Amino acid sequence: MALTKQSRYTFYVLGLLLLCLTAGYLGGRSGSDSGSAQTVASSGSSGQAAWIDKIKKAGVLRIGCADAPPTIVVKSDGTCTGPDLIPLQNLADGIGVKVKTVATTWQSIVAGLQANKYDIAADLDQTVERSLAIRFTNPSWSYPGVFLVERDSNLTTSKQILDSGDAIATSQGTALDAALQRAKAKELRVDTFQNALSGVKAGRAVAVFADLGTAVDMANKDKSMGIVVPDPAIFVHHVAYGVPASIDARSMEIVNVAIDNSVASGEIDRAFAEAGYRDVDALGDLQIKP
């Protein structure tokens, strides 16, 4: 069939458009492939787990830990045990290294991490102040701050305790300490929660302000003490693990996998229950109610 001038022009235009579209498609694919190759290369370079590799080379994961029964217990020989060490033991097992616990205090646990006395700090409350110096992993659990009072004190609410004007004892340098300062409470600041309890027994303070786990442990051991749960809450914190501020992203991801798996499997909850920990809604006769 003979083509008219208009038909030839139409086919010419269509041919040009097809050529442009084809070139553009191939160019786009080429650009995309180049981008993908660049992305893969970038991912490969950022995929180095330098912090993990350093621990694997040393053959040991050093864990800094301070006393906070029943979640972390510092024994007389300076070693630490407790359910909140489970994710870190799982991490060590996963990368094929041993665990070494390094006992410290709540006042110096962050400084010890910064000074490389250990690789990771266990059972650490997430706070903005600490985040300025170190980084935090995903949390392993959370807890409220509660009061521990003598049962014959007739104190049954947090308002009564705060309005008493008497000192409230707590462990210096902890997130609980900071919470009391924000509440403008009169404080008796001591080095451990056990000494805070001694301060109450000696009449130097009206109550101990502690994490729920510590308060449950103390109330279980001393039946003359009871727990007052603040309502509304004065303090609720997520507990995680402190790592150096310089940790690489790949290593952080590996640590978080170990933590998340330990939480999701129920290992931590079961270990907490075996250690005598109780949630707020299961305090039973340990709680003093109005």
What is the overall number of helices? 11
Radius of gyration: 29 Å
Helix content: 40-55%
Mean pLDDT: 86
Beta content comes to 15-25%
Shape: elongated
H-E order: HHEEEHEHEHEEHEHEHEHEEHH
Quaternary structure classification: single chain
Structure description:
This protein has 290 residues and is of the alpha/beta class. The chain is built from 11 helices and 12 strands. The chain has helices at 5-46, 50-58, 86-95, 109-114, 128-131, 158-163, 175-182, 193-201, 212-221, 249-264, 267-274, and strands at 60-65, 73-74, 80-81, 98-103, 120-125, 135-136, 141-150, 168-171, 187-190, 207-211, 225-228, 236-243. The strands form 2 sheets. Strands 1, 4, 5, 6, 7, 8, 9, 10, 11 and 12 form a 10-stranded mixed β-sheet that branches. It has a two-stranded antiparallel ribbon with strand order 2-3. The longest helix is centred in the N-terminal third of the chain and has 42 residues, at 5-46. The protein starts with a helix and ends in a 16-residue tail after the last helix. 36% of the residues are buried.
Strands, helices and their partners?
Blueprint: H1 5-46, H2 50-58, E1 60-65, E2 73-74, E3 80-81, H3 86-95, E4 98-103, H4 109-114, E5 120-125, H5 128-131, E6 135-136, E7 141-150, H6 158-163, E8 168-171, H7 175-182, E9 187-190, H8 193-201, E10 207-211, H9 212-221, E11 225-228, E12 236-243, H10 249-264, H11 267-274
Parallel strand pairs: 1-4, 1-5, 8-9, 8-10
Antiparallel strand pairs: 2-3, 5-12, 6-12, 7-10, 7-11, 7-12
Helix pairs in contact: 3-10
